[in-house]
Amino acid sequence: MTRTGAHYLESLRDGRQVWLDGELVKDVTRHPAFRNTARSIADLYDLTTDSAAAKVLLTQDGIHRAYSIPRTYDDLVARRKAFKTWSEASFGYLGRSPDYMAAGIAGFSAVPGVFATSTFDGTANLEAYYKRMSTGNLYQAFTITNPQIDRTKPAAEQEEDDLFVRVVKELDGGVVVRGAKMIGTGAVFGDEVIVGTIEPLGPGDAEYALSFSVPIDTPGLKFISRTSYEAGARSVFDNPLSSRFDENDALLVCDDVFVPWERVLVYRDVKASLLQWWGTAAFPNFVHQAATRFWTKLEFLSGLAILIAKPNNVYDLPPVRNQIGRILGWLHQARSMVLAAEAAYEAVPGGEGVQINLEIASAHRAMAGEIYPKIVQELKLLAGGGLIQLPASGMDLRHPELGGLVAKYIRSPGHSAEQRMKLLKLAWDALGSEFASRHEQYERFYHGAPHVYHPMIVMHTDTNALENLVGTCMAGYELPDTPGLPA
Predict the structure, then answer these.
(1) Contacts of 224 (CB under 8 A, 6+ apart)
(2) What's the CATH number of domain 282-467, 1.10.10.10, 3.40.50.280, 1.20.140.10, 3.40.50.11440?
């Protein structure tokens, strides 16, 4: 049976330990810091029950296309269309929607040999894991980044031995782990959380070299939430994005968590713990989903730019057209990279199926992080002081004394005060609110820091071909023997 939004929401009422402002949240589906976002994610699942959307979102076997392993170019396009359908439902603001990590799991399954090591053979567990997640259409959350403690030292040389998640005990039925992982984006809304390490580990870090997926309500798992922008929203009218699409970020703390062996994918293998992410199709699959979502987000911001310019009658002014053209240029750049990466698809190295072009996927990481702040800046310049001089609440329009004043001074030609306020409240939430600031920082580091992804662009690029092109040019001429004569 296809999973519905109601089924999803019910699954969240499992006693998971989510902490916010020193409070243990008993039910994320009802708490004012999480309930609207949980409902937005539930809406994604409801789309899979809509006959028209289901044709795009689901395979003939009834699983989400994000879980499928593409075999052809057409399969990549079909998967992208599914990514696009879900991303449009949140206007690109749910960065870690369930299809993100679903694509990662499909990437693992495309290269199962990575999980067969001398210390642990996780291939059978991987097969069961893929089946469990895909057939249940489950939401896989993840925490794969170590806390920022001392970045000059490997995991085993930190001040304390449990600052990062590590094995502290091995039992007949599994292992006991202790430590923390950061940036659990959307983790409080997941069905399971996969814990691993995306950064390289040192030769002495075997105790930290593991990967496993367990239910969110597993005893000993604690999720410590950052400030909730949803909780701070005055209303959907005043904060239309942060009130509905604050996917949250949480610190995961493992307090002597028991992990059964059948839930373990990688164990005590430093190389495999890294290759799980970079030696399978997981990374290009991540970028395929993320790049499609980013394209959608830029469509939204481009539309916002046009709607900001029109009410003030400046849309046709050459300087404004210049600004909007610049924004649209970035939009088409983002879109073109997705289409190009699909068209230049390649076989999954050492595995099965195909993936988007790795060179373009790597370049997209840099492009997205660099242009997003520029787009936000252009929109802020376009909106000007209108973003600042807004009534505290849309309900001021209903006030018996203030309503007439607001209606008179906030309007613009052809647009009522309510229409204009609705637009500018949306713009502020996208550009200037705390929610907006988080998204700008988030897009900058969506796939890592520049000092990480720039060298990886070099690694994934056929630099020999570039050198050979220059070499061909240089081979076409020589220093002449006599000055003034051609070579």
Answers:
(1) 19, 250, 251, 253
(2) 1.20.140.10
Residue 484 confidence (pLDDT)? 74
| Tokens of residue 64, six digits | 């989400």
Q: Which amino acid is at 36?
A: N
Please give the radius of gyration of the chain, using alpha carbons only, rounded to the nearest integer. Answer: 25
Over residues 126-155, the pLDDT tens digits come to 999 999 999 999 999 999 999 999 989 999
Q: How far apart are CA 329 and CA 98, in angstroms?
A: 29
CATH topology classification for 5-278 = Butyryl-CoA Dehydrogenase, subunit A; domain 2 (2.40.110)
Range(s) for CATH 1.20.140.10 in the chain?
282-467
Determine which helix (DSSP H) or strand (DSSP E) holds 263, and give its type and residue range: none
Whether the pLDDT of residue 485 is over 80: the answer is: no
Cα separation, 284 vs 305, in Å, equals: 31
Place of tokens 């949980």: 38
Amino acid identity of residue 377, one-letter, is Q
Rounded to the nearest angstrom, the gap between the alpha carbon of residue 128 and the centroid of all alpha carbons in its chain is 25
Give dist(CA 211, CA 272) in Å, integer.
9
pTM of the entire structure?
A: 0.94
The predicted-structure confidence for 32-81, as pLDDT tens digits, reads as follows 999 999 999 999 999 999 989 999 999 999 999 999 999 999 999 999 99
Separation between Cα atoms, residue 383 and residue 169, nearest integer Å: 57
Nearest partner of 248 among 443, 96, 376, 92, judged by Cα: 96
Tokens 């290759």, residue?
275
Helix axes 417-431, 434-444, angle to 10 degrees: 40
CATH 2.40.110.10 domain position(s) in the chain = 5-278
DSSP string covering 172-204: SSEEEEEEEEEEEETGGG-SEEEE---S---TT
From the number of C-beta atoms within 10 Å of its C-beta (0-12, 13-18, 19+), residue 89 rates as buried
**Exposure class string for 61-75: b at 16+ Cβ within 10 A, else e:** eebbbbbbbbeeeeb
| Residues 161-190 pLDDT 10s | 999 999 999 999 999 999 999 999 999 999
Ordered strands of the 210-215 beta sheet: 140-143, 192-195, 210-215, 264-267
